[in-house]
Amino acid sequence: MKHLIKSIIYLLFTAITASSLMAGELTLKGSTTVLPIAQKCAEAYMAENPDVKITLSGGGSGNGIKAIIDGTADIGNSSRFIKGKEVKLAQSKDIYPVPFRIALDCIAPVVHPSSKVSNLTMDQLKNIYLGNITNWKDVGGKDGKIVVISRDSSSGTFEVWKKLVMHKKRVIPRALTIPSNGAIVQAVAKTPNAIGYVGLGYLTKDIKAVLVNNVKPSEKNTLNGSFPITRPMFMFTNNWPEGETMSFIAFVLSKKGQALVSEAGSIPIF
Fold this sequence. Notes:
The protein is of the alpha/beta class. It has ten helices and eleven strands. It folds into two domains: 2-104 and 232-263, Periplasmic binding protein-like II (D-Maltodextrin-Binding Protein, domain 2, 3-Layer(aba) Sandwich); 105-230, 3-Layer(aba) Sandwich (D-Maltodextrin-Binding Protein, domain 2). It is 39% helix and 23% strand. The strands form two sheets. Strands 1, 2, 3, 4, 6, 7, 8, 9 and 11 form a nine-stranded mixed sheet that branches. A two-stranded parallel sheet has the order 5-10. Helix 2 packs across helix 10 (255-263).
């Protein structure tokens, strides 16, 4: 009898411990644009909640939404809204993604710091990425073949660029495809004739942001609507979140969380 009681106590302790560990773990996957926000918020949240472990990874907005549908993440980070085909796939698996808008962003065209080009129109950007404009001298720069750099198709940044700049037309096939914002920064910084595009939080002294239609990519010009390439950023959950997931989302949307959004280089929603 004594051994039976000990066994029951052990099983109960094991179950409670396992439950506690499960409740204290969060996995976030997806957008590399949202990643700096997620990192700052995760660090601050874990500092306030030492028993919680948060795991982060990038891979693009498409992969973040896919992770929610596959059940491999508690939160899917995305720099675009969910697509209709993704909603249908989710519903076919009894998954109901819920979006939380956590920040705003603008997408800045970027060139090498040595470039003489400081402003491009939306039409010029479109034609550079279509391959109709191939030399920098045709848009006020030095004579030199333009090296076109773009994001991969799983990227939310690519989807927004394709919609707002390309009007859904195909980017030139010879464009170099890069998997993340950070990698684009590195590629443009090392390539004098390159052009790429990144989220506002990735602008550094190693690259040069280009004005679009004579408007600077900035928080002010995103909020007043004058910069033409802007988008909201999201965290998606499967159904209405509960427990640790709900607590973390609430933290991101709190005054402290939104201050961290600003620190990450993105634009708070309030």
